[in-house]
Every structure is written in C-alpha cells, then in structure tokens.
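Hi P.,

Sorry for the delay on this. The queue was packed all week, but I finally got your sequence through. Input first:
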Amino acid sequence: MGSKQKHTNLIKTEAKRLGFLSCGVSKAEFLEEEAPRLEKWLNQNMHGEMQYMENYFDKRLDPTKLVEGSKSVISLLLNYFPSKEQNPDSYKISKYAYGMDYHFVIKDKLKSLLHFIQEEIGDVHGRAFVDSAPVLDKAWAAKSGLGWIGKHSNLLTQQVGSFYFIAELIVDLDLEYDTPVTDHCGTCTACIDACPTDAIVQPYMVDGSKCISYLTIELKNEIPSEFDGKLDDWMFGCDVCQDVCPWNRFSKPHSEPLFNPTPELLSYTKKDWEEITEDVFKKIFKKSAVKRTKLSGLKRNVDFIKK
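Then the structure:
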C-alpha cells in the first residue's frame, strides 16, 4: 500500500472515531462545473440580501486560493437527525438548530482531526471550514463521493438521506481521491411539489430569496407580504423539502449529546412561544444557532405567521 492510500485510510478511520458519518476526499482544484452555475444564480439575484455570497467569487471556486499549497479537500458529514421532534402544536424550528450551534461542535472535531493528521503524518498544514467561509460545501462533498446534490439542492445519500452537516479540512497533503456517486432522484418531484413558497424554481435550482430558511433567518427587513400565509408555521428555518424526501426514510437519530435540545424546545406550544421573554429565550437557546435571529427576529416571524 502506498503512503497516499495509507494516509487516507488513517484519516477516514479517525474521522469515524470522532463521530463523523462519513469522510471523502477530492483534489483541491478549481470547481469548473460550479463556476457558471454560481455566476448564473448570483446574476439572477437568487441570493436575496445575502450579499456575502457575492464576495470572494474566485476563492469559492478554488481552494488553493484559501489554503496555500493545498492538495486535498477532506469532506465530512455529521448527523443531526433528532430522536424526538417538537410538540405538533408549535411554531417550528429547523431540526439542525435543536441543540448547540453546530459551528462550535464541528470546529472542535475538525481541529482534533487536523491535530491527529499532524501527529501521525507529520508537517501538514490546513484549515477547517464549517459553513462560515467561502467554501462550496455541497459541491465538495459530492465531488468526494459522499452523496449527490438533490433537486432541492441539498446533498443526499441513499443510506441516510440528508439530515447532516457538511464540513471540510483543506490540507497540503496528497491523498487518494474518491469519485462522485450517481444521482438517485429519478423522476421524483416531492420536494418541488411540497415547497410552501415555490422556492425550488426548477429541479436543482433554489431561489434563495423565496426560501423560508432565508425569510426567517437571513432576511433582516420585513418579510414581504407575498409570503402571507405561506410560512407553514416555521419560525426558524424550514425542513419541508427534506421531510418529504423519500431518502430520509433512512435517517437515523444522531448520537451527539451536544445536539440534544432543551425540554422546553420540544414541549412548548404556540402560546408559549408567543409569550416568550428575553430571559427564557436566552435559557432555551443559550448556545444555539437560533441566537442569530435574536428574540426580536423570532417575534417578527411569529407575528408574520399569526397575521
């Protein structure tokens, strides 16, 4: 076995030990197929007010511009599918935000993995990315054979569906590269048909400015009146396109204690959410991604749903 294969096996074994669902590797190079797609999406203003999507266009497509001398992109998946869901009489929160903010949880695991690589393999330089820098996570995960990008534009796998986070380590180490898997969406249009705001404008193309996740989290101004009655009780994020996807029949609950929600989050009714105070908000969402919207954002979303 060559050293590339040996190093790759070592890394994948350690990733499993750290709790990642799966790990795939691809060559750090310019994403040629993604470039025209990203450009078209931006030109059609499908990113709405997410101005940051326009920044660092070249870095988004070329990891060697992010990490000098990089040779490999290691993509990792971490399951967040919960064992219990919210009270049915409730305003809904996207499952990924039930527990502690994933940025912290995954960053720690990635640092451990990088440290392991440096200890076991030697002088390896790299950077960890969790949905916070200009990295096209889904494109890299698909290129690394971890799944295919579905019609709802999320990464999908036959074994476990799509309820997982994607993260990367970009390193200056030559590794054995994986190959992409085939698309298994077939003729299914469940996600397109179910989207409450018709945000999936065509298969594999989501208009971000119409997506409930965007409207309830990213959008800082008032929610446009064209979405009256269409938020489907979602007050933070939205899981509709994933919930209806046949592949998510295979989702299994995660085993990460930090992703477990507070009891209140699961038991609260609509009335409880409508009466929530700043203190209670801080207690329930102490280290949660929901803190991004602040209480005022959550209230804005609830008021919009109620009217």
